[in-house]
Amino acid sequence: MTVMIKENISSQTHSAPSLTGRAGGESVTILGIESSCDDTSAAVIRDGVLLSNVTASQAVHEAYGGVVPELASRAHQQNIVPVVDQALKKAGVSREELTAIAFTRGPGLMGSLLVGVSFAKGLAAALNIPMIDVNHLQGHILAHFIKTQPTEESQPPFPFLCLLVSGGNSQIVLVKAYNDMEIIGQTIDDAAGEAIDKCSKVMGLGYPGGPIIDRLARQGNPDAYHFSEPHIPGYDYSFSGLKTSFLYNLRDWMQEDPDFIEHHKEDLAASLEHTVVDILMKKLRLAARDLKIRHVAVAGGVSANTGLRQAFQDYARRYHWHVYIPPFSFTTDNAAMIAIAGYFKYQDRDFCPMEAPAYSRVSI
């Protein structure tokens, strides 16, 4: 099994609100642990400032065209100890200096979650410090409040809208506070990232499809082909129709030219990306207009997509939005977002009991 460990510390992160630490002005040092899917990650945050963020990625799933839960959980068991150890060393922090341990409790793959949850429980019990459970989806949104310097002050003000897009989620979230979030729109079937991955698989481009489609789209014409866009009321999304439209069109074109994909893969990728981004932004624009909110953020794995990032900039100019786009290192699953969420919850002494189980499915 091949794993790749990398450290992500970005100087472009957004700052957290000024919050007090322990009584008497002592520093608050949070170890964050993320293991919801196929990345094992650990991060250390002290008083809201990121000191380290180490992630071990799993390459074994590429051969299967998707994440294999059993292989993922086995890799987490191999990676969790060295990843946490490296995160502490990079931060220059000893275990005895930790104030609390924040961990992803869900949603995610149960086997993967259990590795992180069990490790957090064991370490917290050994150090006699509190545990803080974090909702993975809220963590993605709160990634906007990670800071690498104490003086950073560029976080979105409350309330703001956040487009949360990943392989498993496409949601518009009204963020009223770090602990008060409301989903006002979400996909009724496939998520945006899931649709992209499946279309990439149909084209035989490999897994994960998102980065491949992104790269090819930069070389193609976004207006070359037109695919079906759903007509769903309100702020909800649907991507199953787009996926079906893409498949049927591809089938018809390949009847005329068996090598159609190879001859037109750049234009296909660009047109697919353009359609997905258009669907996402139209609903987000509708929500921002109706709620009269101009502070708009994006989070989740798909927020790394170049076309979506450019669309946010375009909409900012067109509709006078203030947009917040995370650094690439905080778009995918990472423990820094879990640590900052845990830091916020620590201020309210919102701790987790030792008997709390992991959960595979949950909403914000």
Quick structural summary:
By secondary structure, the chain is of the alpha/beta class.
Textual characterization of the structure:
This protein has 364 residues and is α/β, with parallel strands linked by helices. The protein has two domains: 3-154 and 331-347, Nucleotidyltransferase, domain 5, CATH 3.30.420; 160-292, ATPase, nucleotide binding domain (Nucleotidyltransferase, domain 5, 2-Layer Sandwich). 40% of the residues lie in helices and 19% in strands. The strands form two sheets. It has a six-stranded mixed sheet with strand order 1-4-3-2-5-6, with helices on both faces. Strands 9-8-7-10-11 form a five-stranded mixed sheet, with helices on both faces. Helix 4 runs antiparallel to helix 7 and helix 6 runs antiparallel to helix 7 (260-291). The longest helix is centred in the C-terminal third of the chain and has 32 residues, at 260-291. The radius of gyration is 21 Å and the shape is globular. Residues 1-21 have low confidence and may be disordered.
**Overall structural domain count:** 2
Structural class: alpha/beta
Mind summarizing the main beta sheet? 6 strands, mixed
- Secondary-structure element order, N to C: EEEEHEHEHEEEHHHHEHEH
The percentage of residues in β strands lies in: 15-25%
Mean pLDDT across the residues is: 91
Architecture (CATH level 2) name of the largest domain: 2-Layer Sandwich
* Order of the strands making up the biggest sheet: 1-4-3-2-5-6
What's the gyration radius in Å?
21 Å
CATH topology group of the largest domain? Nucleotidyltransferase, domain 5
Low-confidence stretches: 1-21
| Spatial gap, N to C terminus | 33 Å
Strand segment count: 11
Helices, by number, come to 9
CATH homologous superfamily identity of the largest domain = ATPase, nucleotide binding domain
Shape: globular
Tell me the helix content: 25-40%
What would CATH call the class of the largest domain?
Alpha Beta
